[in-house]
Fold this protein.
Amino acid sequence: MFEQIVFGPIRSRRLGISLGVNLLPLDKKLCTYNCLYCECGWTLSAYENNKLPDKESVALALEIRLQALKDKNAILDSITFAGNGEPTLHPEFGQIIDSTIEIRNRLYPEAKITVLSNGTQAGNPAIAAALKKVDQNILKLDAGYNDTFQKLNQPANHLQINNLLILLEQFQHNLIIQSMFVKGYHNGAYYDNTADAEVQEWIGHLKRIKPQKVMIYPIARETPSGEVKKISLQVLEQIARKVEEQGIEAEVFF
């Protein structure tokens, strides 16, 4: 759990020197997914009422931390909305993005604003508009087939992968796809999103979504499900080459 609104900076394998922003409760995870591999643990709630920081508190915390970093002439590559679950669940997400852009432009214009999201709230026009404003709109797609999507991400409200794809494709050329590759068992059911047929189906989704780039990565921390297996660098690089054969940039972060 991240115990502050603004945390870090930390060195990210994908984003460089990253200052994190957590819009979610400080004591529990709030998300529309319950991924088997999530470093924040199992999802206990998705849409129920929770105590969230207001937009004024977020802006103040961010400005104080950015000013402190600027005073030290610190390098900062990204202001990253991540934290304890799904950041777009915050009811003031759009307003927070607007204030973050203003503060960033004033204090750290060279830093990119990044959102790590599963994209499930992008059916809300205000959320979609906010995501289109950020420098790095990084949205999740881990599966080719719906069965794998259900096993691996365990979405709330029985969301189907075809519905997710409709939400993602509205950002064509204005999003980055992040994909975690894993295999293992959960509740006796086997999953492997590195299987050839699964990867081909996933690549078909990428061709439909048209991302700027695909970020491919394995697990790097403990997972709530103890049977999640880490995928080798060789397999991940093979998947990346298949993506690049379709004219889509892909990078492996191992």
